[in-house]
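Retro notes (design track)

What went well: tokenization of the new backbones is finally stable.
What didn't: we kept losing track of which sequence belonged to which structure.
Fix going forward: every design gets posted as structure first, then sequence, in one message. First example under the new rule, 126 residues:
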């Protein structure tokens, strides 16, 4: 994602449980707020991504998923524990930065895939 050799990493990661947003501040001044739903549907796990191109599984009905816990993985990643039981994705700093940098494109892509599958997002809590 980056063109220089400078390593990008989070300076701060804060979970806002009420709004279900994960706030990340990176060392290059990038700041983002990523929803739990977005992080869940773009989990880097094999369950979501598959084991190769074209093996992705469309994640549906994740509108109300929350992050229940954040566990550090060495000094290069975090593991997010979701309220739907999903806990196998390892979110490296590079992957989190990529999600932040391409959020708008990825979110529209996800909404388009849901629409093409005839799935409507339904948010049941406030």
């Amino acid at each position: 994602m980056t063109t220089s050799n400078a390593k990008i990493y989070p300076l701060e990661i804060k979970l806002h449980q009420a709004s279900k947003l994960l706030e990340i501040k990176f060392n290059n001044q990038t700041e983002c707020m990523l929803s739990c739903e977005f992080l869940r549907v773009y989990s880097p796990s094999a369950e979501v991504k598959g084991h190769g191109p074209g093996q992705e599984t469309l994640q549906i009905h994740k509108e109300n998923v929350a992050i229940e816990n954040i566990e550090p993985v060495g000094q290069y990643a975090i593991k997010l524990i979701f309220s739907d039981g999903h806990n196998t994705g390892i979110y490296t700093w590079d992957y989190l930065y990529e999600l932040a940098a391409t959020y708008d494109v990825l979110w529209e892509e996800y909404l388009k895939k849901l629409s093409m599958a005839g799935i409507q997002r339904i948010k049941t809590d406030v």
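Added context from the reviewer: The beta strands are 10-16, 21-26, 31-35, 67-73, 77-82, 90-92.
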